[in-house]
Amino acid sequence: MLHVPNSTRGYTRSQISNRFGPPDWFPESHPAAPKIVLEGRTPEVPACGYCHLPNGFGRPENAGLAGLPAAYIEQQLDDFKNNRRHNAVPRMGISMIPVASAATPEEVKEAAEYFASVKPAKWIRVVETETVPRFHAAGRMWVPDQDGETEPIGERVIEMPENTERVEIRDESASFVAYAPPGSLKKGEDLVRNGGNGKTIACVTCHGQDLKGLGTIPSIAGRSPSSIGRQIFDFQTGARNGLNAALMKAPVSKLTNADVVAITAYLASLNP
Ligand code: HEC
Ligand code: HEC
Questions:
Q1: Considering Cα of 257, then 263, then 266, then 271, what sign does the dihedral take?
Q2: Which residue of 32, 81, 109, 165 has the smallest Cβ count within 10 Å?
Q3: Quick check: 250 and 198 in contact, CB under 8 A?
Q4: For residue 89, what are the contacts with CB-CB under 8 A and spacing of at least 6?
């Protein structure tokens, strides 16, 4: 039986990796979740909470869903299902297409309303630094090596669990740290708020002054830089071409890798 701090629950390793009933360590920390989120439907729809966590806070390899507009979530599943939303790196985008294709409209609606009702909380700590812990891939995440060695950050944002063991057992209170090159936050703020002197269209125009979304436009504040960065590249390449994606074409068209590093670091540093 495995445990995490402050939870009265215990799960075995095989329960933790059950796609049709993953752990819900803190059921009192989120509204009551529908069956599709906690258990999914065998054999074709794994629980949304298996990948996105029961509170929808998500992980770097998927997406935070907590507090996104229900209509936006439903539209994304429709886009995945109807071949409009892919990933620029195809192996990263394969998870949602079967899920969205197999889920019924009622299941999608229930899940969307549930995730929209969860209040997001600060989940990512952004640190500007010249060096990062050396790291390797575990599952679909970067995790720090045990030896304490470091390497230069380069032109990258590196996002890792604050506590690898707790993230590996799907503790939805175990948050992330994102390392970014020095100067990222200031440069990102200028691009996001002012458009970086014509480089892009200020994101606040559509995503709201607080960047927490406007109408059915999603929040981009306090969300995973890995996940948000992938979306920017997906809009750029056209792999993400959903019904409402056209508005994102102009803002991303001139962004370089260094711009995406700065923008995602700044956005991740905000309160969600
Ligand atoms: C097997 C893992 C897995 C399961 C199960 C899963 N998802 Fe996802 N989901 C992903 C991944 C990975 C992505 C990110 C795709 C990308 O970056 O292109 C994603 C992305 C999404 C997005 C896009 C978010 C955004 O910000 O645009 C939504 C919405 C979503 N999932 C909803 C759901 C719902 C609702 C369910 C349950 C019915 C579900 N997912 C089940 C892995 C999963
Ligand atoms: C003209 C309006 C507009 C502007 C300006 C704009 N966005 Fe968007 N953005 C949207 C819309 C609409 C969507 C939803 C697209 C969809 O449904 O596919 C979106 C979606 C996104 C997403 C996907 C979020 C997710 O949950 O997957 C990201 C990331 C994003 N925008 C980042 C930015 C950034 C960064 C900027 C500024 C550089 C920006 N946007 C400027 C309208 C805009």
A1: negative
A2: 32
A3: no
A4: 230
Residues within a 6 A CB radius of ligand 1: 36, 45-46, 48, 50-52, 61-63, 65, 73, 76, 87, 92-93, 95-96, 99, 103, 111, 218, 227, 230
- 177 Cβ contact partners less than 8 Å away, ≥ 6 residues apart: 124, 125, 126, 127, 159, 160, 161, 162
- pLDDT band of residue 94 (cuts 50, 70, 90) is confident
The amino acid sitting at 177 is: V
* Residue partners of 11: CB distance under 8 A and separation at least 6: 1, 2, 23, 169
Are 236 and 252 contacting, i.e. CB atoms less than 8 angstroms apart? yes
Q: Fill in the amino acid letter for 86.
A: H
Type of residue numbered 84:
R
Mutate to test the pocket of ligand 1, among 37, 52, 92, 118 (most ligand atoms within 8 A of CB): 52
Radius of gyration over every alpha carbon of the chain, rounded to an integer in angstroms: 18
